[in-house]
Amino acid sequence: MPRLRRHARTTAWLFAALLIAACGTTPAPEVTPLAGAQQLVVVTSDGWDAAQARMQRFERDGDGDWQRVGDSVPVMLGRSGSAWGLGLHPAQSGSPQKREGDGRAPAGVFAIGEAFGYAPEGVGALPYLAMQASHWCIDVPASPLYNRIVDEKSVGATAVEGSSERMRLDLHNDGDVRYRQGFVIEHNANGEAGRGSCIFAHLLRRPDETTAGCTAMDDAAMDTLLRWLDPARTPRFVLLPDAEYARLQADWRLPPLTP
Q1: Residue 118 sits in which domain range?
Q2: What is the pTM of this model?
């Protein structure tokens, strides 16, 4: 009996070792920044310092091939171009890197947050925030509310001191239309101090006007985008210079672009 028990134990140990070895050699499923996404907004530019860009839309069923939706439309970026941001993509060590006040739009892959605007109700399926005169986006790096849209009535006047980003531009800047419609691009969602804040897609005031780091488009393009975006389809926002898009296209499973 002792010999049989030893044999049984030895067999069990061997089986367990083989099972562990087999599990250890099974490759983990590959995760890309676009995993689970079925809608994609892609913005590409000629280079890091380019302020003019192109926007295209794509969609797919499941993990199938991306299909283009509609035509490419022109958009404007930050006055200084773009720079690597903090999003859903792996951290990129190259330069430039997005910093507060640098005038660059964050590059990478980002979740799409709430829509916002001046009207009491929005269009489309994105959750909507109706902006009032008391709403701010906090761009003060030292603030615990950094990179968040807040209502001064709720957080108090002290909490918004030093911030420059009023969300009702029309009331504070002679009828400024830029934030009449827009949505949040979730760059730096954890609010890392100094890495950039208040990044939106919003309206253009003039066709050739650059931004402080956002992506701006005309009314028709914004309306089409808002009516198309569906949070149930996990939409993503991609912004990259052409050369970086080509470099990362296969690894990130980005769709081919229309010339």
Answers
A1: 39-252
A2: 0.88
